[in-house]
Amino acid sequence: MADSEVRPEFMKGINEVKQLVSDQVSLKQVNGNLIDGNCLVSLAEAYSKGINTNGVPVLQTAWNYMCENQSSKVIGKLVDQYKD
Fold first, then answer.
1. Chain centre distance of CA 72
2. Domains of the chain by residue range
3. Is the pTM for the entire model greater than 0.90?
4. What is the pLDDT of residues 66-84, one digit of tens each?
5. What is the longest distance spanned by two Cα atoms in the chain?
6. Distances (CA, A) of 44 to 1, 12, 59, 76
7. Contact 82/67 with Cβ under 8 angstroms?
8. How far, in Å, CA of 33 to CA of 28, rounded?
9. Euclidean distance between CA atoms 60 and 73, whole angstroms
10. What stretch of H or E contains 53?
11. What own/partner pairs with CB < 8 Å and gap ≥ 24 does 32-35 have?
């Protein structure tokens, strides 16, 4: 659904909530590195995998998994761009 199909009052409220969250939430860091939503998802996946297989997630392993996962995504995008 396009923004133009939604009532302006609703969009105004959504934008106010987004701004409130943006103003109130601090940037997340792991090992001194800023992480975004995709990185948080990768870390959550790694933690879940650790809990489901070993019972205790290893933080350094989860961090390495997240770095490898993000690197693979970037490499994939770069290869796709190179092919085009």
1. 15
2. 3-83
3. no
4. 778 778 888 888 888 888 7
5. 50
6. 29, 32, 11, 22
7. no
8. 8
9. 20
10. helix 37-53
11. 35/66
Question: What would the two tokens of residue 78 be?
Answer: 């770069």
What single letter denotes the amino acid at residue 8?
P
- Backbone Cα Rg of the chain: 18
SS3 assignment, position 62:
helix
Interatomic CA distance for residues 49 and 47, integer angstroms: 5
Separation of alpha carbons 78 and 84, rounded Å: 10
CA distance 47 to 53: 10
How many Cβ atoms sit within 10 Å of the Cβ of residue 42?
20
Read off the tokens for 34.
Answer: 């800023």
Q: What is the reported pLDDT for 3?
A: 75
Reading the block at residue 5, the tokens are 């199909």
